[in-house]
Design a protein that fits this description.
Chain lengths: ~375, ~400, ~140
């Protein structure tokens, strides 16, 4: 069994969540819109999951809109909000996921102005730039809670307070944060928050937008009027149930998970430092406990990844969504990382099932590979 | 016999156990749980292979090329993507769309949205049997028409539109043709090339696959362009971003593979059961079949029971799970807009029941259902002042009602 | 839609279904609603010399809530004077049956039906009285 260290790309479904889902594929197969017993059972299951997801992020169940994925949630937040408002200023963080950056950019053709909030070398928003932008009173700001590549965590509650004080709407992509660190929707002050099930050991194909009712949004998907008209389409009942179960488990395990991930991460980072000539991105910033993103000069990341895969180590250079591109990561570029170092970037993301042995196996494989690669390029290790 | 007896297969179907088994291999730690977009390791590659195999299975059922298959979250998204996507891309060429009043809400509401954005939409009336008069379609088409959207099989009354004939018209005039085929996969043979369909919406959960996954078929030759509605990582060749749910794609692929393999025999078995139900219910006085019986899928029977109100009938039939029309609108008190479009009067539209039979329906269940319906219709008619008046020979259409 | 147990009980065992003789001067008939709206209620009361409703019958074309509302109403009006029966409010019916908001109109219809039946009875009595005076 290869070692899987790419949990920020996707996680395996928790077996307990699968247990919860299975009945809703076969014997409890009703359409929640049907009024008969099968339909009502499905509706009840969706409502229960809605409560579980709401609990994970301390939201009210009525604020949960189930979607087909995290990307859809962010599209709904940004484009749904924009559709009901006069074109104005939309600001996004420089290290946003394409599921936020692309819908934002798509609004330009409708007359929206899109501003990018720069980050410092640690990946954190630059306070002075933010203050300057807030003075322009943006209609909406979207900044991710935690970055998928570096794991850098932004101070969302502080930002949300400022945005709201300026009369704007705050959206956050919390796809990578929820289930890994404490995320409190109500206390954070954000009005819109995107979540995804498959990043927290739930199934793929289901996400949610948590939406404060004060924010009006036009639906993206129109038709049957499901989710109170905010998202039409027959509910993915089994998927939603799996999301609910995974959210519940994540909430219950949060403290334990955090502690275990932190200890794996600290182990890994001290081993990496021992290898030398390695830069850990965002090392000074507040980060997710499970994510280590690092780079090395003179190493081609792609080659290294493929060699590591052959050694049975599954990791990535960053976002899975962008893995077909070969340019250095836009996230690392935005942080001002030297392209040569960014080119060799590797992301290790631990998950609930990761162990000390995984760290050992990874370090051993990396050491071997680096030795070979650097020999080829004429550099010595350390 | 498990009660309630499920006779609502057009609302949704259970996942076939064979499909569920296959899906389970792509979820947990001991399966292929990888993200199909992960390029740097075997977890990702294996997931991608599974998605591509599923894509080929979906394509095979409708005679398409796998490259023409775009994964979505379901037929509602496919309909939205097709209609808004075409409008977005071809809006400069023309701003007129033709569709039919009996389309699914996902098509109608997408069209209404476009009307708000300055497009013009012609909503054709179907004939009383539910079918489109092609001359009316031709007459409605204009030089600035960019899209015709007509569903293959109607979700409420099960009538089959002649897609090949419509496709011939649209192709001749260089107009794009979209069809919502959510209700027809596995029930009617589909060949997108023979039918000249340019865009087709498909759903998994109406054909024994999982809920939450669908497909939009987008023709490549001649090439059809759409403007993406979901932006992000650029998945599905930029047409639809969002992580692909491997197990969902696999489930849809397997469900469609089974459908292709088994549909010929399955349709005949189901037709036998439907005809048995029909023969039995026809014995009740004052019942009407809604929609054409001949150009109709084998599994659908939609009947109006005059002088009985539909919701109370459904309540009386609590041992059978049926619907008074489309599941998507069943929470509303409005009579079915589909039946209204056929010219059915309000009373008959209010008293309709849709029975839809499926893979796991047995003859015993059909006989039980038929008996129960007969018994309850008699009971409710005893309660019905309208039935009483009808028996007294009063013409209800001439009565002045104290409407509230 | 989730129905309360009381609605289900009245729906499954409706009380006082039937017909009273329309031509009987002691009988008042009220018919309200319209088939196009999905419900028609026919409510009949038989009033004795003391002005007390001694019998009530109904027939309803409509959803479960409409049937339950009219069934409950026939139970309530029996033994009441027509004045008392005329004071029954739809909110009481809706409350007793725990009707969901979308079904409140059923209780409104029931209130309309008893009012119509009483009015019909009173019209008949008035005509009868005037006839009697004339004779």
């Amino acid at each position: 069994m290869p070692v899987y260290l790419d949990h920020n790309a996707t996680t395996p479904l928790d077996a307990r969540a699968l247990e919860a889902m299975l009945p809703y594929l076969t014997e409890q197969h009703g359409n929640p819109s049907s009024v008969h017993r099968y339909g009502r059972a499905a509706r009840a299951a969706v409502d229960r999951a809605r409560e579980q997801v709401a609990e994970l992020v301390n939201a009210h169940p009525s604020q949960v809109i189930f979607t087909g994925c995290g990307t859809e949630a962010s599209n709904l937040a940004i484009k749904g909000f924009a559709a009901l408002n006069k074109p104005g200023l939309l600001a996004i963080g420089a290290t946003e996921h394409p599921s936020v950056a692309e819908p934002a950019n798509s609004l330009k053709k409708n007359g929206w102005h899109v501003s990018v909030l720069p980050v410092d070398r640690q990946g954190c928003l630059i306070e002075t730039e933010m203050e300057a932008l807030l003075k322009l009173r943006p209609e909406m700001i979207s900044v991710m809670w935690a970055n998928n590549e570096t794991g850098v965590v932004q101070d969302i509650p502080a930002l949300a307070a400022k945005v709201r004080a300026n009369g704007g709407v705050m959206h956050t992509d919390a796809v990578q944060a929820a289930g890994k660190i404490e995320v409190d929707f109500s206390a954070s002050g954000v009005q819109l928050m995107s979540l995804s099930a498959h990043k927290l050991n739930g199934p793929k194909g289901v996400g949610a937008l948590i939406a404060d009712k004060s924010v009006e949004m036009a639906p993206l998907l129109q038709g049957g009027g499901q989710e109170k008209g905010r998202r039409s389409g027959t509910e993915n009942v089994a998927g939603i149930v799996g999301f609910g179960a995974a959210a519940s488990l994540a909430k219950a395990q949060l403290a334990d998970y955090g502690a275990r991930m932190r200890s794996l991460r600290d182990r890994l980072e001290s081993e990496l430092r021992a290898l030398g000539d390695i830069e850990i991105f965002g090392a000074q910033a507040s980060r997710l406990p499970n994510t280590v993103c690092f780079g090395m000069r003179g190493v081609d990341g792609e080659t290294l990844l493929l060699n590591l895969d052959r050694e049975g180590i599954a990791i990535s250079s960053g976002s899975a969504c962008a893995s077909s591109h070969r340019e250095p990561s836009p996230v690392l570029q935005a942080m001002g990382i030297d392209p040569e170092v960014a080119q060799g970037a590797i992301r290790v993301s631990f998950g609930a099932g990761s162990t000390e042995q995984d760290v050992n196996a990874f370090i051993a494989a990396l050491t071997t590979q680096l030795r070979q690669l650097r020999r080829m390029t004429g550099r010595a290790v350390g | 016999m498990k009660k309630p007896i499920y006779l609502d297969y057009s609302a949704t179907t259970p996942v076939d156990p064979r499909v569920a088994d296959k899906m389970c291999q792509y979820l947990t730690l001991d399966g292929e749980f990888g993200n199909p977009a992960s390029r740097s390791h075997a977890f990702g590659w294996h997931a991608e292979e599974a998605v591509e195999e599923a894509r080929a299975n979906v394509a095979a059922l409708i005679g398409a090329d796998p490259k023409e298959i775009v994964w979505t979250s379901g037929a509602t998204e496919s309909d939205n993507l097709a209609i808004k996507g075409v409008a977005g891309f071809y809006g400069k060429k023309g701003r007129h769309i033709v569709t039919c009043k009996t389309e699914h809400k996902a098509v109608l509401d997408s069209c209404r949205q476009l009307e708000r954005e300055g497009f013009e939409v012609t909503y054709l009336d179907p004939e009383p049997n539910g079918l489109l008069d092609l001359n009316k379609l031709k007459a409605a088409m204009r030089p600035d028409t960019i899209l015709v959207s007509v569903m293959h099989v109607n979700n409420e009354i099960g009538v089959i539109q002649d897609l090949a004939a419509i496709g011939k018209i649209t192709r001749e005039r260089g107009v794009l043709f979209h069809s919502d085929a959510a209700q027809s996969t596995g029930k009617v043979p589909i060949d997108v090339n023979a039918m000249n369909v340019d865009l087709m919406s498909l759903s998994a959960h109406k054909t024994y696959g999982p809920k939450g996954v669908g497909v939009l078929y987008v023709r490549r030759k001649p090439r059809v362009r759409i403007e993406a509605q979901m932006h992000g990582g650029g998945h599905e060749r930029g047409m639809r971003s969002g992580t692909l749910a491997t197990h969902q794609c696999v489930g849809m692929g397997e469900a469609y593979r089974l459908a292709k393999q088994e549909m010929a025999a399955e349709i005949e078995r189901i037709r036998g059961l439907r005809n048995r139900l029909l023969a039995s219910l026809k014995g009740i006085p004052e019942v009407y079949v809604n929609g054409d019986l001949e150009h109709r899928v084998a599994h659908n029977l939609n009947m109006s029971f005059n002088f009985v109100e539909g919701e109370s009938l459904i309540m009386a039939l609590k041992d059978i799970a049926v619907s008074s029309g489309s599941a998507c609108t069943s929470a509303s008190l409005e009579p079915s807009y589909v039946l209204r479009a056929l010219g059915r009067n309000d009373e008959l539209a209010h008293s309709s029941i849709r029975f839809t039979i499926g893979r796991f329906t047995t003859q015993e269940e059909i006989d039980y259902a038929a008996g129960l319906v007969k018994e309850k219709v008699v009971k409710l008619r005893e309660l019905s002042p309208l039935w009483e008046m009808h028996q007294e020979g009063i013409d209800l259409s001439k009565v002045q009602w104290a409407a509230h | 839609m989730a129905y309360s147990d009381k609605v289900l009980d009245h729906y499954e065992n409706p009380r006082n279904v039937g017909v009273l003789d329309k031509s009987d001067p002691k009988v008042g008939t009220g018919m309200v609603g319209a088939p196009a709206c999905g419900d028609v209620m026919k409510l009949q009361i038989k009033v004795n010399e003391q002005g007390i409703i001694e019998d009530a019958k109904f027939k309803t074309y409509g959803c479960g809530s409409a049937i339950a509302s009219s069934s409950l109403l026939t139970e309530w009006v029996k033994g009441k004077s027509i004045e008392e029966a005329g004071k029954i409010k739809n909110t009481q019916i809706a409350e007793e049956l725990a009707l969901p908001p979308v079904k409140i109109h059923c209780s409104v219809l029931a209130e309309d039906a008893i009012k119509a039946a009483i009015a019909d009875y009173q019209t008949k009595t008035a005509t009868k009285d005037s006839k009697a005076d004339a004779a």
